[in-house]
Amino acid sequence: MYDSGSKITRYPGQSHLLVAVDCIIFGFDGTNIKLLLVQRGLKPEKGKWSLMGGFLQARESLDDAANRVLRKLTGLEGVYLEQLQAFGDPSRDPVERTLSVAYFALIDIHQYEKQLSNEYHAEWFLLKKIPELIFDHPAMVELAKKQLRYKAALHPILFELLPARFTIPQLQILYEGIYDTTFDNRNFSRKVLSTDLLIKQKEKDKANSKKGAFYYKLDKRKYKANFQAFLNFIPNPDKLLM
User: Fold this and answer.
1) What's the whole-number average pLDDT of the chain?
2) Domain 18-152 top-level CATH class
3) What residues does each domain of the chain span?
4) d(CA 67, CA 104)
5) pLDDT tens digits for range 8-33
6) Are 153 and 195 in contact (CB under 8 A)?
7) Under a CB-based contact definition with an 8 Å cutoff, are residues 134 and 215 in contact?
8) Is pTM, for the whole model, over 0.90?
9) Rg of the Cα atoms in the chain
10) Which parts of the chain register pLDDT below 50?
11) Closest to 161 in 3D by CA, of 146, 147, 137, 177
12) CATH second-level architecture of 155-240?
């Protein structure tokens, strides 16, 4: 029987393992969706491209560890990180049995570009041109991309990356990057406007053409009540929501 008066420092018969956190940071620069990577600073695979990762310390939470690792390796602070999934294949780390809890985020690159540190060679890569990654990091990235697409279908997270006023072409570029597809310009515009979730502004953006494109704002009140409207133009929404 367990003696409540005795002090137990270890659970008998149980092996111990390391716990790590890995941060998957997607960024939007106004034109492209990118992934932030660093060069690994320790063996094995030292110098190869990696997600931002580190080990959980004895007296910190997983969230605190993820923010500490991100700050140390990239200089980024104040980034909203969302826990993705635990990765625990026994052979995922060749040195020791290590369980990793992955986090992901989508940020506006321009909002954080002044914070980015080069100490660990942090660099943004186009999603279509990601270099070879260590361990099971490719699987983490693929799962994070799937989760990002799922969340973008149900929540207005993509609009947080756009200016308060945006054009339909800007919105199209963002959605094409997230879903890795190409939309017909007229069809995209027609479907987006048919949702009745955007508020047309009087001013135009004339930076890219003489005719210009009208600015819009998202009607967040209507969006919360009828977010399904945006599913009408997302590729294979049924697969995303399974």
Assistant:
1) 88
2) alpha beta
3) 18-152, 155-240
4) 11
5) 777 888 888 999 999 999 998 888 89
6) no
7) no
8) no
9) 22
10) 1, 241-242
11) 177
12) Orthogonal Bundle (1.10)
